[in-house]
Amino acid sequence: MNRNDLKELIIQAIRDSGGSATIAEVGKYIWEKREKELRKSGEFFYKWQYELRWASNVLVREKRLRKGPPRGMWHA
Fold first, then answer.
1. How far apart are CA 13 and CA 26, in angstroms?
2. How many domains are there within the chain?
3. Which structural domain, as residue segments, surrounds residue 58?
4. pLDDT, position 48
5. Which of 46, 50, 59, 47 is nearest to 9 (CA)?
6. Angle, to 10 degrees, between the axis of helix 23-39 and the axis of helix 48-61?
7. Strand, helix or coil at 63?
């Protein structure tokens, strides 16, 4: 698991939620689907939620993700 893997998981989580989701919903989705991989990812395990935010910013720059409105909502 790495930063780039999170980009696709974010999009998948949002699409599976009907096109919009909060960061908490995305994080929960990823944890439920990939907990074993995250636990085995070494140092990445301790910073994956930070990396989730990094990946979301990259997706915004790539125009694959839009944040808000409302505040805290992500749209794919």
1. 6
2. 1
3. 3-65
4. 97
5. 59
6. 120
7. coil
Two tokens, residue 48:
């994956």
Q: Judge whether 59 lies within some domain.
A: yes
Do 38 and 1 touch, CB atoms closer than 8 A?
A: yes
Mean pLDDT value of segment 51-63:
97
Which amino acid is it at 10?
I
Please compute the mean of the pLDDT values over residues 30-46 and round it to a whole number: 97
How far is Cα 36 from Cα 50, in angstroms, rounded to an integer? 18
Q: Percentages helix, strand, coil for the chain, rounded to the nearest 5? A: 65, 10, 25
Q: Note whether residue 10 is domain-resident.
A: yes
Q: What is the pLDDT of residue 50?
A: 96
In three-state secondary structure terms, 37 is helix
Is 35 domain-assigned? yes
